[in-house]
Amino acid sequence: MRPFLIAPSILSADFARLGDDVKAVLDAGSDVVHFDVMDNHYVPNLTIGPMVCTALRNYGITADIDVHLMVKPVDRIIPDFAKAGASIITFHPEASEHVDRTLQLIKESGCKAGLVLNPATPLHYLDHVMDKLDVILLMSVNPGFGGQSFIPHTLEKLRQVRALIDASGFDIRLEVDGGVKVDNIAEIAAAGADMFVAGSAIFSQADYKVVIDQMRAELASVS
Ligand SMILES: O=C(CO)[C@H](O)[C@H](O)COP(=O)(O)O
Ligand SMILES: [Fe+2]
C-alpha cells in the first residue's frame, strides 16, 4: 500500500485567518489540504468556492488541495476549481447527470479525479469507471457538517472497496472522510483506507502537531 496521507478538512479551520491556519496545519506535518465545497442545495450547508482556493494558492500554499465538491449540478464549477489551483477534484455521483463525462472533464482540466460515495450509496457506481479514478472517497458521515461521529458500517465498505481496487490493478487512493480521530484511525487504515480526512479532530486541538503525530503513531502500527 502507498504511504498514508493525512488531509485536514479546513471546514473546521478558523475562516477568519484561513491562510495562517492552513499553513499551520501543513507545518504541523499534514500532507494534503481537504477543501469542502457545499452549496446549500446538494447538502444543507454553504461554505467556500474557487476564489478561496485561489487565495490560498496566492498566499503560498503549495501542498495538494483536495477539493470535495458537494454541489449539484457539478460540471460547471470544475474548470473554475482547476484554474483556482485544485490538485484533486472529487464529486458525488448523485450530483452528476453523466458520471463518466464529469470524470473526463476533471481529467481534461488537469486534475486528479475521484468519486465520493455517501454512507448509503452503493458500490455499483464504481462499475465501469475504475480506469478513470485516481481516488475513491468513502463518506463515513452524511455530508454537510464537520464534527459528526464515524459510521461503523464504513469499515466493511472500506474492506470491499480495498478488495475492488486491489483486484483492478489500477493506482487508486482510498480516502475516508468523516469522524476520523486518533482513536479510530488505525482500524480505518486496517480496513483499507490510505488517505484520511480529519477536520474537528485536528482543528479542535491547540497544538496540531500533537494530534497529527498521534495519528501517525497509530498508523505506524498498521501493516
Ligand atoms: O466532507 C465533510 C463533511 O461533509 C468533511 O470533510 C468532514 O465532515 C470532516 O469533518 P470531521 O473530521 O470533523 O468529521
Ligand atoms: Fe469532505
From TrEMBL:
Cofactors required: a divalent metal cation; Fe(2+); Mn(2+); Zn(2+)
One GO cellular component term: cytoplasm
Active site (UniProt): D36 (proton acceptor), D177 (proton donor)
Record's catalysed reaction(s): D-ribulose 5-phosphate = D-xylulose 5-phosphate
Family statement drawn from the similarity comment of this UniProt entry: Belongs to the ribulose-phosphate 3-epimerase family.
Function of the protein: Catalyzes the reversible epimerization of D-ribulose 5-phosphate to D-xylulose 5-phosphate.
Pathway: Carbohydrate degradation
A GO term for molecular function: metal ion binding
Binding site for a divalent metal cation: H34, D36, H68, D177
Pfam families: Ribul_P_3_epim
Gene giving rise to this polypeptide: rpe
Cofactor: record remark: Binds 1 divalent metal cation per subunit.
Keywords: Carbohydrate metabolism, Cobalt, Isomerase, Manganese, Metal-binding, Zinc
Annotated source species: Shewanella polaris
Binding site for substrate: S9, H68, G144, F145, G146, G147, D177, G178, G179, G199, S200
Protein name in UniProt: Ribulose-phosphate 3-epimerase
Listed GO biological process terms: pentose catabolic process; pentose-phosphate shunt
NCBIfam families: PRK05581.1-4 (NF004076), rpe (TIGR01163)
Keyword Manganese: yes
Keyword Zinc recorded: yes
The protein's Enzyme Commission number: 5.1.3.1
